[in-house]
Amino acid sequence: MATPFNFPSTTARLNLPLLFAGQAQKEFFVNQSLELIDALMQPVITASLAAPPADPAPGSIYRITATANGEWAGKEDDLAVRIGGAWNYVTPYAGMTAVDAQSGAILCFDSGWQAPHEPPQATGGSVIDTEARQMLTELVDALRTAGIFASS
């Protein structure tokens, strides 16, 4: 006889609630999981804040910044997703990415949320290669268009 599986109560990466045998109000858990999947499939962060906004829209996602306070105290770097009038918190994992709606940049989590920084334009030097500088400018513009760098 096979050993029965022992499932945890949440998923490993995003802590989505799982159903268990005989569970009452299954709809609540399924709907909560679907809302979190909807928010996190291709996450767009509405804003980065230290405290909850006064009137958040349903489904909005906020990146909780340092010195978090109020309802968000102790949740620094987590994502707060507004579902059914309540906050659902998602602890980011290494490699998780999200788009910052304010800057348009892609953020990546690795021991904290990080955004790539645009390099300064080339200036000076003893030999000036205009074609190389033009190519570098076009490369930076392409990375900005792709959302790698924030819009200027």
Write the layout of secondary structure elements.
Elements lengths: L25 H15 L3 E2 L1 E3 L11 E4 L14 E5 L2 E5 L6 E4 L5 E4 L3 E2 L15 H16 L7
Parallel strand pairs: 1-6, 2-3
Antiparallel strand pairs: 3-4, 4-5, 6-7, 7-8
How would you characterize this protein structure?
- With 152 residues, this protein is of the alpha/beta class.
- It has a domain at 26-114.
- It is 20% helix and 19% strand.
- The protein has two helices and eight strands.
- It has helices at residues 26-40, 130-145; strands at residues 44-45, 47-49, 61-64, 79-83, 86-90, 97-100, 106-109, 113-114.
- The longest helix is centred in the last third of the chain and has 16 residues, at 130-145.
- The chain starts with 25 loop residues before the first helix and ends in a 7-residue tail after the last helix.
Concise structural overview:
The chain has 152 residues and is an alpha/beta fold.
Relevant terms:
4-stranded mixed beta sheet, 152 residues
Major sheet: arrangement of strands: 1-6-7-8
Counting copies of identical and different chains, the oligomeric state is single chain
Radius of gyration: 21 Å
Judged by helices, strands and strand pairing, the structural class is alpha/beta
SSE topology string: HEEEEEEEEH
Low-confidence stretches: none
